């Protein structure tokens, strides 16, 4: 495991906008709901309700490129695993060790699993007709 295991009991919430098309933007509707720290009852940040629209470039991205991007995402999760585990613990109050060793480990494995299957669909080229 290459992630730096450093427990941060008060991680900085860096962004509370939506990341769409490589930039952070506000919700179009402006609707948001609060994220509450279950241990203290304090508001951590506001989360947007309607961040995505149909027509995302992801829908038309080649499957092999999707696989590459999913693997990159898993690598970034691994790089920042301790910070992400601290945020997860702050958000829902579970033990840091569960966030780090269970939630994020399974998340990385899931992304890598689906990245491996990307591009493996024999029907992708439309040569198989029913």
Q: Biggest β-sheet: count, sense, barrel?
A: 2 strands, antiparallel
- The proportion of residues in beta strands is 5-15%
Mean pLDDT: 78
Give the tally of β-strands.
4
Shape label: globular
Binned, the helix content reads 25-40%
The number of helical runs is 3
Oligomeric state as shown: single chain
Spans of at least 5 consecutive residues with low confidence: none
Ends apart, CA distance between termini: 45 Å
The run of helices and strands is EEEEHHH
Domain Aldehyde dehydrogenase: 33-120
GO molecular function, one term: aldehyde dehydrogenase (NAD+) activity
Enzyme class: oxidoreductase
Protein name: Aldehyde dehydrogenase, mitochondrial
Verbal overview:
With 130 residues, this protein is of the alpha+beta class. The protein is 39% helix and 13% strand. It has three helices and four strands, in the order E-E-E-E-H-H-H. Helix 2 crosses helix 3. The protein is globular. The termini are far apart.
Write a brief structural summary.
This protein is of the alpha+beta class and 130 residues long. It is built from 3 helices and 4 strands. The longest helix has 22 residues, at 96-117.
Layout of SSEs?
Blueprint: E1 18-20, E2 23-25, E3 32-36, E4 43-48, H1 63-79, H2 81-92, H3 96-117
Antiparallel strand pairs: 1-2, 3-4
Short descriptors:
single chain, two-stranded antiparallel sheet, 130 residues, alpha+beta, 4 strands, Ald_DH_N, globular, two-stranded antiparallel ribbon, 39% helix, oxidoreductase
């Amino acid at each position: 495991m290459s992630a730096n295991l450093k427990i941060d009991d008060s991680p900085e919430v860096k962004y509370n906008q939506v990341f769409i098309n490589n930039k952070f933007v506000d919700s179009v509707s402006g609707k948001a709901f609060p994220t509450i720290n279950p241990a203290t009852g304090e508001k951590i940040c506001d989360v947007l309700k309607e961040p995505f629209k149909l027509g995302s470039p992801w829908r038309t991205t080649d499957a092999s490129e999707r696989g590459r991007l999913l693997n990159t995402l898993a690598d970034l999760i691994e790089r920042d695993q301790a910070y992400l585990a601290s945020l997860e613990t702050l958000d829902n109050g579970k033990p840091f060790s569960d966030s780090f060793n269970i939630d994020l480990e399974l998340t990385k494995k899931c992304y890598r699993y689906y990245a491996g299957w990307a591009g493996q669909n024999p029907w992708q080229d439309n040569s198989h007709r029913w």
